[in-house]
Target: Peritrophin-44 like protein
Amino acid sequence: MYIFVYFAALFVVSCNAVFPVLDSATIKVDPVCKRRNQYVSIDGNCDSYIECRDYHAIDRECPDGLHYNVDAKWPQYPCGYPSDVPCRGRGIQKAPEPTADCPHQFGFFPSPLAQPNDCGHYRMCVGGRALEMYCPTGLAFSPDTGRCDWPENVPSCKISSFLGYECPPATYDEEGYPIITNHKYGNNCYAFYMCESGKARLLSCDPGFAFDEVSGHCVDEDLVPCHLKVEEAIPL
Model:
């Protein structure tokens, strides 16, 4: 009985208690925070920014090797790789934190395994630890962009040696545009070389299609005699 009376009295007191309402009138608002929760850029800075939490400004830094994305909306993660988040004229960056294998803690970098005739190697650094990676078949790693790209866009890559194919001399139409030609990839029924301006790209047909050497196009796979399984034949 006494216990019931005690909790009943406590309930009455709680119901009549006055609790403060947290709003912009009662919270100390930092002048830089125009909204309760948001990110704020620091002029000229690539990797530092301000995070506003309940109108309180907190100085933040992206991990070494990542850039602050000025288009990020709170609460999404605001840091990204330079290939996805260019500095766009912001020149100030914090000093790098290199390790024995990585120039930055995070990012994509050239691998010592890469050669002019084997351009697909690169390193992915995570927390200063290097992981050896390889681009999808037919693509080369570009040190300039930190991405896998077509070999003709990577000056250090020797295309003919890398892809194992030398395109015929370039031909052009009456208006001066290069004529694109397609060529069979070895004994593979599903992949082919596309040649434009004397430079090759290794491509593959869409599922359900195979490369027809006569027409130089991908056609219904039932129309192309092929003794290879699809998973064995497609290199990409």
